[in-house]
Amino acid sequence: MILNGVEIRDSFAEAFPMVGTRLIITADSAKWAMIAAKTMTGFATSVIGCGCEAGVERVVPESETPDGRPGVAVLIFAMDIKGLKSVVPNRIGQCVLTSPTSACYAGMEGGESISIGKALKYFADGWQISKMVGGKRIWRLPVMEGEFVCDHDTGSVSGVGGGNILILATSRGEALAAAEAAVENMSKVEGCIMPFPGGVVRSGSKVGSKYKGMFASTNNFYCPTLRAQTDSHLPPEVASVMEIVIDGVSFDAVAACTKAGIEAVVALGRDKGVVAIDAGNYGGDLGPFHFKLREIMA
């Protein structure tokens, strides 16, 4: 399959079940809502080393937030519900409760509940106040700046983690420009995040290592500098590869996000140095979710 001079390789992304939740973070200004959201979702690129994967899903207008203030929706994913129940209140407590003028609300219903105020109320040392608003419990915690308001809990969903595309290009600059265009378009798809820095991964990994105790290591098959020493998957003209990893609330959300990314890269075309789109997988033996590139773009 060739689209605008770009080869869509006959490959698939292999993804895994994850458990996720959405939070709505608000503040007096859009600036501080985004600061709290980005701080809370920091150091959350991969469950391998971070314990969760998280990112900003979208900006939420004042007309859609529970308190009528500027908001940001974030998604957080973990490998199981126990892990999610641990990381969510910890991150809210350290990064949202502490952020000036912030509040934190549930962003989804259903599934097992994940504590927000149920866990954070103890910080108020007995001064916390609980109220029922619209059939939902909220908490007001006095703080030096004023008060922190949050929902009692939020819902959870069985999601998908590890969807991906690989962008093969003739130079590092062209690979990054294509990845940036892809992330911009993918960010328009609700229900998904790209958890790595700026949504882009320059150090894609394979499972295992020659060193004991390493769960993952550099994907030498896609490293241009190792072309002569390994069973390279790169054509001669490719000098750089960028990966975009996708986590989403459903298979369909990740598929739509994958398509949006490929469409943006293909729009640039071969004239902008993009040679091919590929995907990372493990032969189909580990992850139950397979995102076949050519089927998605058919």
UniProtKB/TrEMBL annotation:
Swiss-Prot/TrEMBL GO biological process terms: formaldehyde catabolic process; one-carbon metabolic process
InterPro entries, per the entry: ForMFR_H4MPT_ForTrfase, ForMFR_H4MPT_ForTrfase_C, ForMFR_H4MPT_ForTrfase_fd-like, ForMFR_H4MPT_ForTrfase_N
One of the record's GO cellular component terms: cytoplasm
Pathway: One-carbon metabolism; formaldehyde degradation; formate from formaldehyde (H(4)MPT route): step 4/5
Keywords: Acyltransferase, Cytoplasm, One-carbon metabolism, Transferase
Domain Formylmethanofuran: tetrahydromethanopterin formyltransferase Ftr C-terminal: from-to ranges: 146-296
Main localisation: cytoplasm
Domain of life assignment: Bacteria
An example Gene Ontology molecular-function term: formylmethanofuran-tetrahydromethanopterin N-formyltransferase activity
Gene3D superfamilies to which the protein is assigned, alphabetical: 3.30.70.520
UniProt-listed Enzyme Commission number(s): 2.3.1.101
Top-rank EC class of the record's enzyme: transferase
Catalytic activity from the UniProt record: N-formylmethanofuran + 5,6,7,8-tetrahydromethanopterin + H(+) = N(5)-formyl-5,6,7,8-tetrahydromethanopterin + methanofuran
Subcellular location as annotated: Cytoplasm
Job of this protein: Catalyzes the transfer of a formyl group from 5-formyl tetrahydromethanopterin (5-formyl-H(4)MPT) to methanofuran (MFR) to produce formylmethanofuran (formyl-MFR) and tetrahydromethanopterin (H(4)MPT).
Protein name as annotated: Formylmethanofuran--tetrahydromethanopterin formyltransferase
